[in-house]
Design a protein that fits this description.
The structure is a single chain. By secondary structure, the protein is α/β, with parallel strands linked by helices. The protein is built from 13 helices and 11 strands. The strands form 2 sheets. It has a 6-stranded mixed β-sheet, sandwiched between helices. Helix 10 runs antiparallel to helix 12. The radius of gyration is 18 Å and the shape is globular. It starts with a strand and ends with a helix.
Length: 295
């Protein structure tokens, strides 16, 4: 059986295709495109026409890649949760993919991220999923028992703080303060290990490793310390948008919000007093696949 999971996020749309044979799974394809679907949603509560077109173009590419797929599940997250025109968007997505996206809550998002990244790890894990519009924190030992969804992410912080590249000292201080204010409401769950998932973490890990081309095997299982993150924030704060876009492994559409994402991560790690975090390529997509394989 071949199954496909599609994640329609605030900044990125992603696809994972898995073959399941005789109790084993084989990854056929894992791909993503940064489309900026949530651009302007925090201000207007609407998905913008250009952003919708970018997302649909990426999803059309995905559909052409899903040869021989038996089951598909598509989920939509923060940007779609807040958009008044999401059902119109979902109509168009359904016409492209053949399935209608499911609007999932922040808690659903956290459960799926935990299932993908930590469900089979020994001990108590804390999974931190920094998206474009929201950040999910979920802790548990095999199953999640402590979940919070925060209304802050790379796109939302960048837009709310007016963060430019390079930022002024005032902009940077304002962005730090906004991130810290939102994150300060989160409880501090106990865990044996912290795991960072999704595009902000993997992009930061690739920069820290100074990869010339993105290599998932190198990124998966790599670590970021609080000191590493501080250096990344300092480095990204010194670059123009053009210089950020030119960084090896940097997706051009992620460049405008990567500093905002790094500041969200920094705020979370400071609040939770986490000194080191392991970056995982396995995340919400893998959790969605697990639900398909259980059907």
């Amino acid at each position: 059986m071949r199954v496909a999971a599609v994640d329609i996020g605030t900044n990125t749309v992603r696809l994972l295709v898995i073959d399941a044979r005789a109790g084993e799974t084989v990854e056929v394809m894992r791909t993503s495109q940064v489309v900026g679907l949530g651009e302007g949603v925090d201000r207007t509560n609407l998905l913008q026409p250009a952003a919708i077109d970018r997302a649909l173009a990426a999803l059309s590419d995905f559909e052409r890649s899903m040869t021989g797929v038996d089951r598909v599940r598509a989920v939509a997250t923060a940007a779609s949760r807040e958009a008044g025109n999401r059902e119109d968007f979902f109509d168009r997505v359904e016409s492209v993919l053949g399935v209608r996206p499911e609007l999932i809550t922040g808690a659903d998002e956290a459960h799926l991220a935990f299932a993908g990244a930590a469900a089979h790890r020994p001990g108590r894990s804390l999974v931190i999923d920094v998206g474009g519009g929201s950040t999910e924190l979920v802790a548990g030992d095999g199953v999640p028992d402590d979940i919070v969804s925060l209304q802050i992410g790379s796109v939302r912080l960048t837009e709310r703080s007016g963060l430019s590249l390079p930022p002024s000292a005032a902009q940077l201080a304002n962005a730090r303060a906004l991130a810290a204010e939102v994150v300060s409401t989160a409880p501090r769950p106990t865990s044996d290990a912290a795991i960072g998932v999704a595009g902000t973490f993997t992009a930061l890990a690739a920069l820290h490793l100074r990869l010339s081309v993105y290599d998932a095997e190198s990124v998966d299982g790599s670590t970021l310390t609080a000191g590493d993150l501080a250096m990344l924030v300092e480095r990204l704060s010194s670059l123009t948008l053009e210089e950020t876009m030119a960084l090896p492994t940097m997706e051009p559409r992620r460049a405008p919000v990567i500093l905002g994402g790094a500041l969200v991560v920094d705020a979370v790690l400071r609040h939770l007093n986490v000194g080191e975090i392991t970056v995982s390529e396995r995340d919400l997509l893998d959790g969605v696949v697990s639900t398909l394989l259980q059907q």
